[in-house]
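Troubleshooting: if your tokenizer reports a length mismatch, compare your output against this known-good record of 119 residues.
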Amino acid sequence: MPDSKHWLILINSAPYTEAALAGAGMDAALAAGVFGQQVSIVFWGDGVASLFADLEPPEGQRHIGKQIASAPLYDISDIFFDHSRADGPFIDDANLSLQPLDTAGLKQLLRQADHVMSF
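Known-good structure output:
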């Protein structure tokens, strides 16, 4: 797709908070992916909790783990997490390749992205 841009979705908010920013970040990532954009998702700081395997949503909220697990269906394979917060266990899905990222790696991704959205 000639108009494809690189989108970096930075999720640094804890899941299932009142503002529901982590879920909104996943919605943005999946929307960009469905339109053929190159998407990288980074879970940083409190956002890493979205990747925990034992995380259950409060009643009435969508399960963010299921959103994350669906990323490959939207051609999203670049999923990173803050290596200093890797105290999982993380979502176990054979289709996901969660990659640890340090601060230098995050800075590099930020420089390479055409668009950055932070949630």
